[in-house]
Hints:
Layout: E1 17-22, H1 33-44, E2 50-54, E3 72-75, E4 78-81, H2 83-93, H3 103-135, H4 138-152, H5 156-159, H6 163-173, H7 175-181, H8 194-209, H9 220-234
Parallel strand pairs: 1-2
Antiparallel strand pairs: 1-3, 3-4
Helix pairs in contact: 1-2, 1-8, 3-6, 3-8
Glutathione binds at residues 22, 32-34, 56, 68-71, 82-84.
Amino acid sequence: MRMAQTDDSPAPDATTLKLYELASADETVRFSPHCWKTRMALAHKGLNAERIPWRFTDKDVIAFSGQGLVPVLVDGEAVVNDSWRIAEHLEERYPHPSLFGGDTGRAVARFVNSWADGTLVPAIIKVIAVDIHNRIAAKDQGYFRQSRERRFGMSLEAFTADTATAREGLRHALAPLRFTLRQQAFVCGATPAYADYCVFGMMMWARCISPVELLEQDDPVFAWRERLLDAHDGLARHAPRAQ
Ligand SMILES: N[C@@H](CCC(=O)N[C@@H](CS)C(=O)NCC(=O)O)C(=O)O
C-alpha cells in the first residue's frame, strides 16, 4: 500500500525535512501518539524525514519552535508544531496523494482527531501511564511523574491500578470505530488516510511503550490495526518497541 507522489506535486526533498519525535530510554523507540500521526502522514505522501529523537525534558532543543511539545516538523524554512497543523502543512505543500480528500474530509478528520485526543488519550493513558514512566529515559522520569500526577490528581500507580476497568472503558470508547469498521476497511473508506492515522497513532503509542494488548483478536478494530501495521511497507509493524 505504498502511495507515490504524482507529477503535479512539488518534488519532495527529504533532506529538508526534519521531524522531532518523542523517544523512550531506548532512542530507537518512538512512542508518541501525535508523532505517529505525523509519521504515517509523511509515509502517505511518500516523504522521508530525518527523525530526531527527543526527550520530555529537552525543551531547549525545540525552543526554536516557540513551544515545548513534539511533533515538530522542520520543512526547509517552515517550522510547524502540532500534529494537526503539520498535516495541514503537508497537505498544502505536497497535495498528492491527499490526506483529507477535500474540505469536507478535512473537517471530518478534524472531528476524528479531536475524538482520538479527547476520548482515546484519556482511556489509554489509564492503562499505560506506569509503563511509560518505567520505559522513558531516567532523566525524564521525575518530570513525567510530577507533571502527570498533578494532572491526574493521584500517583501514577493509583491511576493505573484498575487495569480491567480501564480496558473495559477503552473497549466502550472504541464503539464508534468498531461500528464503522464493520462496514468498511478504513475510517476513510477503502484506503487509509489522515483520519485513520489520528486513531492509529493512539494504538502505536501503546504498542511501542507497553506490553499490554489493548484489543481482543475478534474486534474489527484489531483487524483494522493489522491493516495499518502493514500499510506503507510495514512501517509501523517494523517500528522498535520498548522491552
Ligand atoms: N496537540 C499536540 C499535542 C502534542 C503533545 O502533547 N506531545 C507530547 C508527546 S505525545 C509532548 O510533547 N509532551 C511533552 C511534555 O509533556 O512535556 C499535537 O497534536 O501535536
